[in-house]
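Q: Can someone sanity-check these two? First one:
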Amino acid sequence: MGLGLAVTPLGVTVPAGGTSQFSATFNSVLDTTATWTATSVDGGNVGSIDSTGLFTAPAFPPPGGVVTITANHSGSSGTVTATATATIVYSDRSLNGPYAFSYAGNDQAGFLAVAGSFVADAGGLIRSGVEDFSSLLTGVSIQVPISGTYHVGTDGRGTASVNTGRGTNTWAFVLTTNQHAQIIRFDSNANGGGTIDQQSLDALTNLPTALSGPYVFTVQGADATFHPLAMAGAFTANGSGGIPSTDAILDVNDNGISGSGVTLGDTSVNGTYSFDSVFAGTGRGTIFLKSTTTGSNPREYAFYAIGTAKNSSDVSIATQLHLVEIDGTASLAGNVFSAPASPAGLASANYVFTSGGNSSAGTYAAGGVFASNGTGTVTGGIFDSNSAGTYNSGPAIAACAYTVNGATGRIDLKLFTGTGACPSGASPSVSEFAVYPTSQGTAVMLEFDSAAVATGVAYQQCSAESAGCATMNPSLLGGSFALGLTGQGIFHNSAASYQSDLIGQVRLSGTGVTGGNLDVDNFGAAFEGDPVTATGSSITAPTASTGRGTAVLAASNPAATYNLIYYLIDDDTALLFGQGASPIAVGAFTRQF
């Protein structure tokens, strides 16, 4: 209130996408000439307010979660102002429009993978959609129409009931914005983890030009004999439905933990692709890839396009595709990303990574930070791994050279945790990866040593405050964060080995954990809204050199303790690694507000 000007209501909670009417009085008389603004100290999307004081909330909370509503009155004595606040919470309107999704996990027989797309109506209905499903239990189902309902809670956690040709599936998810969510399958006797991503309208075209230029990919799952299988590679789409073998490459780790099954540098990769004319406008299509390593018959994948960017010819091209194999030869799932036009290796920076899959002992997960000098050498870092519940206690990474293939962009990366000179050949102290940089500044990874069959992703760590990064300041770890953890491991008919998946929201004070809720699927049972308690929970500040810290989340119903390591990418995002015996998982931690 200032000089007789007042705004009502003084404070109100508004669901995302909803409205609230504000009014101003001047000397107790309704002021119809007041001008209105909506602002936030921390910026972000604050919604809008019209000339009558009708405020429309943004689709998700801005930083801090609060919008300041200001009324201005101009008169003969000058301008006076008065303010009120609108606290924004998530709602069903936070999920609105076309989305692509994918998740992978296990059912009663073993590995399952699902990818698809749907349209949310902002009111709790999934109006239309389609998915492709690969399971060791039920086989492959393609072009399955889906529909259903969903609900988004005020903290961004939500559930969806999805009707498919195989019955009804339940999802649990947590939104970070209206464009992205982390998802888990939330049924008994089936679990999995993945993402929901809003689709660019340009990605919903059926024109083959939407796939054009260089791409990189990883897929992981089970081969025909139920052994873990992972692949990574690069190819170029020609914009008219063809994938020539020029500058293409494939690396395969087919149960290489048994001492064989690894094939590297196959340059015979070629294929075709097309968008789906039956489900036009969904972003769905198919890719056929064949190579000497994978056999004479092409491997067929369903894809769902997500984002787009303009290429040098001002044509919108897909920057990411969700993949699921649908030919029945193997059960694989993963992602395709657009790649740089000119491969340049790794910049001089820290890189945060996680990966997961199988070791000879069982479930496997890894994570860490490695430093590249930009000229072909990893100079340091830290490496965490968890093999069937045995944690390696995070040894330091020592100096080791890496090589870059100038034609394909493929990087042969060694993470050396021993002493002395980096070995030139295989060694227990070396984890070796085929790494493929993307055009988004990330990289996909395939581990091909005898320790694990695993795939992962690496992100360049933000380090300059001018770029919005002050990641080593522990006070920045305050606010509400969405988290997701996906259990790792590919097992055949071994329910006791299947790892838990969870999503949730956790509230941080900057020095500790103040609360939150988790949704947990333990394969045999699903638990919604498991409270995170301040007692027993904690978080340590990230180290200055790597941005690595630790966190303990203590849940109370059912009681469980999750011992995690986090690796900061920037002020708002971190990758997660589970260092305990359960779940052996990797995931992400993203600021909501």
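And here is the second, same format, sequence then tokens:
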Amino acid sequence: MLLSARMKTRQWVIEPADDRCEPLAKSVRISPLLAQVLINRGISDSEEASVFLRPKLTELIDPDLMPGIEPAVQRIKQAITNREKITIYGDYDVDGITGVAILWQVLTMLGADVDYYIPHRIDEGYGLNTEAIGTLAKSGSKLLLTVDCGVTAFDAAETAAQLGLDLLITDHHQLDAKLPRAVAIVHPALEESYPNQDSAGAMVAFKLAWAIANQFNPGRKLEPRLRDFMLSATSLAAMGTVADIVDLRGENRVLTSYGLKALPDCKLSGVEALIETAGLTGHSLDSFHIGFRLAPMLNAAGRMGHARLAVELLTSESPTRSMQIAEYLKEQNSLRQQCERKIFKQACEIIVERDMNHPDRKSIVLASENWHTGVIGIVASRIVDKYYRPTIMINAADAVSGIAQGSGRSIPGFCLLSAIRSCSQHLSSFGGHKMAAGIRIESEKIEKFAADFEDYAKQNLNENDIEAKLHIDAAVPLETFRTETVDEMRMLGPFGQGNREPTFATKGVRLASPPRRVGAGRKHLQLAITDNTAAIRCIGFRFGKLEKKLLETEFFNVAYKPQINTYNGSSNVEFVLTDIQFE
């Protein structure tokens, strides 16, 4: 039997060697190993491989091709010309925040009378709400422009129309058969032929901002000030794209690649403050830094307080104010982490106590009156990582309205939105994607919802589906990884959904030096391994408990991600262990 390093069996799925590797490697002038990884990603054509490895900003899809964009631009131009008040209504996550910041700054630069509104995550919940629309109409708004929300807000759209408030929707969430009432809807899925169906909300906002800028600059090039901002806006859109976990191939890869490169030199004071506060000044940034360092700080505003503060940060022209907000968001993120750890511990205890980790169980739905609504989505992700089941966490605390809020995360191959829709008779509202979704539900209906959700999961998941899998790009000898080979692998980034960081395996290795437990609580493990072709140092995060097992075992298998470790001016290949198998 195989034992996983984290005491949880993961099925290794190793891609077989492909005969197309050598020809592709010669054609594109790359190593056969890199060619193998590209083929694993569905890229076997030399031209497509060259574009993937060397993305250029000129490969972005023309904004005029985005479905619904022309009437949207014309209505915004009319509002600017007539000095009508525009309010941008955005979601409270990083995707919405960055999209709002992009549009607000472009409209401000073009002389628009523009403000923004971000709903409170706990008090108002996701998306357009009728009460907020009433308030905005009374305040004099004439055009309401949504970002990352609105495409399923039928009641709110009717309210806006009744109040004489023109609604312009930009969104990327799944469409219903019918569309809400609006003067224009900008959405990539309105036309099946549009090349980037997986655009993030920030990408849709970026395209609209670009099209608006073009409308006011009829020449071939934008005037310098607008051009400089739109280049900076690629960094904002990249943050939204990475944070929203959309597919990082095609146009999303192009935008993210450029935006990441531009991020360290971004002249927006809020971005500079965010990077400095995160301790990343001077670093070459990648998708990991966005996903795990910068995005959580921006998200902390909406999770622990109000996301309007994050938009203020990204639109501020004051370095002093930007640093104040960034420092505050760092503190809020720290509180979020503490809250998350507490809820995760409680959730795991409930799962074990109720036997919800039984192999026959296909889903997990948990509810408590003591859980913070802003954190339950992250905890749901951690539960999925630990138990590999579609998971919904619900905060049932609102005794006044009786409406509980939930956040869910899924596993590959299981559409969470379809599962929730199948149980929608129990819900007040819901929305989201295949992998992440939110619900609102009356507290007394939670139990019935959980039962129906489990029934749906049992009908649509088999035993193999809920076995965690580790996808490995190739099984190779250790000598494969020289410094230049690992450097070449960086061309595959940025990594994320649809373009995971490559993982490799070597079987039948043995210790080249005894393992050593390191780090806080001695949770991590340092070791060196050999297969007689080479010896390489490894670090295994949270692998400390395997020290004794490794000492007792002669041969074992390792899965890893290679990296370059530079210390005292010397660079060497090092492996970050992903898994260990013992025969």
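A (reply): Looked at the second one. Confidence is low (pLDDT under 50) at residues 1-7. The first helix runs from residue 21 to 28.
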